[in-house]
Amino acid sequence: MMMSSSSRNDKAQVFINFRGADLRSHFAPYLHDVLHKNGINAFIDDKLEVGDDLTDLFEKIEESTVAVAIISSRYTESDWCLNELVKIKECVDRRTLRVIPVFYKLEISIVKKLKGSFGLQLWKLWRKENHCNRDDRILKWDAALQDVSGKKAMRYLENSNEADFADKMAKHIQDYLNKDKPPREENPKPQGKREENVKPQGKGGDNPNPEEGSNMASSSIKPGKQCLK
């Protein structure tokens, strides 16, 4: 399997999840290049083939700080896209990853309610792969789609300018990455001494505030809230 990133030896900061049939020849690689020019190490798979192992892709997702999930009209034709999105949701639920949904020339309501061909493609994909043994992947795919459709997202409209949109995304991602960096101490305290009354920093510590306008409740979707049952 051949993959592409801003630097193959460096840890990816951004993982770009997209449907190649819709975006491989224009927007996805253009966005990748813009992020690279802004000093952001983004990962994009450029030649994923049938039979290739998804393990490497999952590792790239886990090591990233931000995932960009670009949802387009043919997104639900690909189990690769959907399985990546499930992995992204798992990392978001663990609060080790931030996802930025991008709805590319697609109404959010179509994704949320699985309308028209978007929802039909999802059913066809599951039935095609599980004609003898139906598993629960379709529920996981649905939960992941519901999760991103409930978050604050960016929309690429029919009349959107590709360059302006990519620049806006790069700035948004760069601002978040800069905010995510821990501040450097000018005068670090010696490690040999322990201060009194220091609160434990384990699981009981404070979590960072979510982005204003985001729907964090959708990160853990109950079965009753899914479109598919």
Describe what is shown at a glance.
This protein is of the alpha/beta class.
Molecular structure report:
The protein is α/β, with parallel strands linked by helices. It has one domain: 3-Layer(aba) Sandwich (Rossmann fold). The chain contains eight helices and six strands, in the order E-E-H-H-E-H-E-H-E-H-H-H-E-H. Strands 1-3-2-4-5-6 form a six-stranded mixed β-sheet, with helices on both faces. Helix 4 (79-93) links the parallel strand 4 (66-71) and strand 5 (98-104). 32% of the residues are buried. Mean pLDDT is 78; it is low at 1-9 and 191-225. Keywords: NAD. This is (rape) hypothetical protein. One of its GO terms (biological process) is signal transduction.
Mean pLDDT reading: 78
Approximate helicity band:
25-40%
CATH class: Alpha Beta
How many domains? 1
Low-confidence spans:
1-9, 191-225
> Mind summarizing the main beta sheet?
6 strands, mixed
- The secondary structure category is alpha/beta
The CATH architecture name reads 3-Layer(aba) Sandwich
Rounded to the nearest angstrom, the distance between the terminal CA atoms is 35 Å
SSE topology string: EEHHEHEHEHHHEH
Number of helices: 8
Would you report the number of β strands?
Answer: 6
How much of the polypeptide forms β-strand, as a percent range?
5-15%
CATH superfamily: Toll/interleukin-1 receptor homology (TIR) domain
